Amino acid sequence: MEGRDLEIGQDSGTKLEISIHRAYPEPANDDQIFLKEIKEAVKYLGGENKESVQQITKIQRVSLLMLREEKYSDYFVPREMPIGPIHADSEKVEVKQLKLKLAAKFIMSSGQTHEYLLQVVKDVVPTLKICFDANVIKLFDDEQLARMLFLDGCSVLQFIHSYVRNELKELQIKNTQVVSIQDDLFLLENQIPFEVLDHLMDSMSEGAVNKDALEQSLHQFVGMNLLAPQESSIDNKKAPLHLLDLLQQKLLHNSKSNGDYKTHNRQFNKVSKRSFPNIQNLRAAGIKLQSSGSSCLRDVTFTCIGWFRGRLKLPQLIVDDSTERKLWNLVAYEMCPDNHNSEYGVTSYLSFLDSLIDNEEDVSQLRSAQILRNRLGSDAQVLKLFDEMSYTFVSDHVYQHVGDAIQKYYDKIRSTGTMNLRIQIAQIYRGLVNHGWISVALQLSIILLILTAIQTWFTIYPR
């Protein structure tokens, strides 16, 4: 019988048992590989091997979503010092010489030989390869990858240590180069595994520059590149994947409102920018803007103060020449396809700020409240930055609960019928203050408070 096996057996009695089984052909090699992958996925979803599967966001190219417009691609390309495999082919001769100079300085300070340190990296290459997307290292064999990571790791550690100690001039590195390299080290496509830096620091001999000093320089360097005022001590609960990941961790460290953040994380953003009141309208509704006094971007809170007042606290954000590139790369990192545990902390904060900003006056109000520290020179530039980035923001909104509370308060104030009056008087008030008529503006504020109280009373207790 074609395609079948015939089995005949006899039990303890006289009755014969006949069983017929279909015989399937052996799968081809490609099919075997494919079916094995399916089986592994089934095992993983069923709970098997979950602990053994390493869930990390690999070093990879920026997703196409972030590159929908070609003009934004420059934000992700190193200007001075490419490190890692993605932009290795763009390295210029003078940059290679700079790396060699930095690496030589590091090796001399380590108390070890360059052969020993290179072997340290070679020994962990199989582990390091897991940290990269397969497509970005497919052109490198293990020996090439080890040499590249060794040179890049040594040069990065020495650059950072010399930068913090203000010793880069000894290496004849120009200030313009320093600024560019500083930015390059926080680009998504310009990363090497933090594990490389750890192994090199662990290999320092006694009597040389010790690991503690290098670690202190490294964390101080990242702190100096925060987009918010640095706090004295920020503990990192997990080992960073690379320098950009460490920067993100320091921006999203434990916050004062961490409980609310966890509870409301990843809710759909019902409040769109079109319907959400901007800064001017919030202030007219009696909401005071205030800095949270924290460098953690998660510290966003709204509190009602009585019937007619509210307080919105936001963490500070420094906006300077390097901010734009860092923000683009932090958002790109959070939106990596394999960043499954992303809480979109940076992206959501920027999205929330974007929902509050409609024009330059809104930026000015945030600056006056010491929430935005604008070092770009004009509020128009800050407005442009948020407008350009807004198309990348995800719909999941970490701060949805804050937006809902603000909207509820705002709708309550509007229901009293005094909203238009508040806005008009607020505009007159700002005009008077800008022209130095502070005493008149103060009297106007008192009149506004009295009128609002009268209107609200008759709204609640109509005749």
Structure write-up:
It is a single chain. This protein is mainly α and 463 residues long. 50% of the residues lie in helices and 9% in strands. It has a three-stranded mixed sheet with strand order 4-6-5. A hairpin with a 3-residue loop joins strand 5 and strand 6. The longest helix is centred in the first third of the chain and has 23 residues, at 142-164. The model is unreliable at 1-9, 11-16, 18-22, 49-53 and 258-274 (pLDDT under 50).
Query: By helix and strand content, what is the structural category?
Result: mainly alpha
Q: Give the terminus-to-terminus CA distance.
A: 97 Å
Rg from Cα: 30 Å
- Helix percentage range: 40-55%
Query: What is the strand content?
Result: 5-15%
Shape type:
elongated
Q: Which key terms come to mind for this protein?
A:
two-stranded antiparallel ribbon, 9 strands, disordered N terminus, three-stranded mixed β-sheet
Concise account of the structure shown:
50% of the residues lie in helices and 9% in strands.
Break the fold down into its secondary structure elements and pairings:
Blueprint: E1 4-10, E2 16-22, H1 29-45, H2 93-110, H3 114-123, H4 125-129, H5 134-137, H6 142-164, H7 175-184, H8 194-202, H9 211-224, H10 243-251, H11 258-263, E3 267-268, H12 279-284, E4 287-291, E5 301-305, E6 309-314, E7 317-319, H13 323-334, H14 345-356, H15 360-368, E8 372-374, H16 379-389, E9 396-397, H17 400-415, H18 419-434, H19 438-460
Parallel strand pairs: 4-6, 7-8
Antiparallel strand pairs: 1-2, 3-9, 5-6
Helix pairs in contact: 2-6, 3-6, 6-9, 15-16, 18-19
